[in-house]
């Protein structure tokens, strides 16, 4: 078996930050998962629905790989990204860094990974690969997927070649910590204000605080939006709470990031933002519970309550991001 040495196979809660953590710890840079998420300006919101979708999707973070790009730019990391339509070339792109002793990040469709219990297509999944043999690839995934895991080379090839929403063309990437690495603490305020500006000024109504307000209105119609509410509504709630979000649609992660920042920086704006995201995180978990209950019971009043809480969340998160945006002043 060929492996990169000294891998800290610490699985965490979210797939992209798990992969980033493996790659950066191997380079000697050990940051908490909330700090990785926050420095990458990872928090967002999207209400996504279209004619070819079976059911609406609520997303709580920026697009796949934007977090990695943001983090690399902010910490002046050398990010090498490779994509190709050729499966042969794609495999060469992965084994070259591993043969040289370095783990590599992969974006793929989790449906084809042998160890995944939930067989749902998701093309924005990330893993860190640190070794391989004649039959299997050795990966680090989230805690809930097992941390250090293995999948067949055939399954990995299918996962990387998949096409569909959020997929990439056999994307692999490596990170190198450069000599001019800035103090991560000095990059906190730019990361927070960039995230706040994007959230407060979304280009379309499906995003940011406007997207949450839109969800507040449309979630009330979800029982009429599906032929199988007992399947679709609990599944939507599961994606909010359990599917690699860290809970509360990534609000737990951002709350914990802000908690770390409050310990490092003396700022009333930071304390305000942290307090409001503590409140928001609990409310998002309440929304998920009401959506699950609506699906299981068929009671539309559960969705009316969920919509009312989402209206509050739009206001609370708008207020939080306005406070955090003042950090640059």
TrEMBL record:
Residues 155-324 form the DUF4872 domain. Residues 14-142 form the Butirosin biosynthesis protein H N-terminal domain. InterPro entries: BtrH_N (IPR026935), DUF4872 (IPR032369). This is BtrH N-terminal domain-containing protein. It comes from Nonomuraea guangzhouensis.
């Amino acid at each position: 078996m060929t492996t990169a040495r000294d891998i800290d196979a610490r699985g965490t809660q979210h797939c992209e930050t798990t992969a980033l953590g493996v790659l950066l710890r191997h380079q000697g840079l050990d940051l908490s998962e909330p700090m990785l998420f926050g420095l990458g300006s990872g928090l967002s919101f999207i209400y996504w629905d279209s004619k070819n979708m079976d059911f609406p999707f609520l997303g709580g973070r920026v697009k796949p790989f934007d977090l990695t790009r943001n983090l690399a730019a902010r910490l002046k990391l050398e990010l090498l990204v490779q994509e190709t339509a050729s499966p042969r070339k794609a495999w060469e792109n992965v084994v070259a860094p591993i043969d040289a002793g370095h783990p590599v990040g992969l974006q793929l469709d989790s449906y084809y990974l042998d160890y995944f219990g939930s067989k749902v297509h998701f093309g924005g999944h990330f893993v860190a690969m640190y070794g391989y043999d004649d039959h299997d690839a050795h990966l680090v995934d989230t805690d809930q997927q097992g941390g250090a895991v293995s999948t067949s080379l055939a399954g990995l090839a299918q996962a990387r070649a998949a096409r569909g929403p959020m997929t990439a063309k056999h994307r692999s990437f490596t990170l190198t910590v450069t000599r001019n690495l800035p103090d991560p603490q000095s990059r906190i305020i730019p990361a927070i204000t960039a995230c706040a500006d994007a959230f407060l000024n979304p280009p379309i109504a499906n995003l940011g605080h406007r997207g949450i307000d839109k969800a507040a209105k449309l979630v009330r119609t979800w029982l009429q939006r599906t032929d199988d509410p007992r399947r679709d509504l609990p599944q939507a709630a599961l994606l909010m709470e359990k599917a690699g979000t860290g809970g509360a649609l990534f609000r737990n992660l951002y709350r914990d990031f802000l908690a770390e920042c409050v310990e490092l920086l003396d700022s009333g704006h930071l304390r305000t933002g942290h307090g409001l995201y503590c409140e928001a995180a609990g409310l998002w978990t309440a929304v998920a519970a009401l959506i699950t209950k609506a699906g299981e019971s068929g009671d539309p009043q559960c969705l009316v309550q969920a919509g009312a809480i989402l209206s509050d969340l739009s206001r609370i998160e708008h207020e939080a991001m306005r406070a955090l945006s003042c950090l640059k002043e």
